[in-house]
Design a protein that fits this description.
- By secondary structure, this protein is of the alpha+beta class.
- It folds into 3 domains: about 70 residues; about 30 residues, no CATH class; about 35 residues, no CATH class.
- Helix content is about 50%, strand content about 15%.
- The chain contains 5 helices and 6 strands; from the N terminus they run ααααββββαββ.
- It has a two-stranded antiparallel ribbon.
- It is globular.
């Protein structure tokens, strides 16, 4: 896993003309922390390996990776204590591998519900009119 993350970081550095060793280090730490679903371990590991100066940068990449990966992990016996977002309904206080499928909570109270509500909107253009209007598709 460390090799994949370092290669991805190094490739990103080549694309944006950045410092290859810095991006390789951040890619390695971010990939390890994201796959194991443990951002704090990744942040601490990066500061031990590469110095305290990279702590801020590794915090950013590890937290972003943690939020993007959702409730997946390479460790199926990892226990899910709380959900990362109210948009996803999943069993809590059980192992991730035994938690089953998660369901998307599309209530209007969270951002995902609002996006799904906007997805139901349909743009209708009246014939002979310069202005279109939005209607709700039921």
């Amino acid at each position: 896993m460390a090799y994949i993350g370092a290669t991805a970081g190094s490739t990103w550095a080549a694309l944006i003309h950045g410092h290859a060793s810095f991006y390789a280090a951040m890619g390695m730490v971010c990939f390890l922390a994201t796959c194991s679903n443990t951002p704090l371990a990744g942040i601490i590991m990066s500061m031990e390996l590469f110095g305290a100066e990279v702590g801020t940068y590794s915090s950013i990449v590890c937290v972003i990776g943690y939020l993007i990966v959702g409730h997946k992990s390479i460790y199926p016996t990892q226990v899910l204590k709380i959900s990362k977002t109210p948009s996803i309904c999943m069993k809590e206080d059980c192992e991730i591998g035994l938690g089953g499928e998660f369901k998307i909570n599309n209530s209007r109270k969270n951002i995902l519900g609002k996006v799904m509500e906007l997805d139901k909107l349909e743009f209708v253009e009246e014939v002979g009119s310069d202005n279109g209007q939005l209607t709700m598709d039921n």
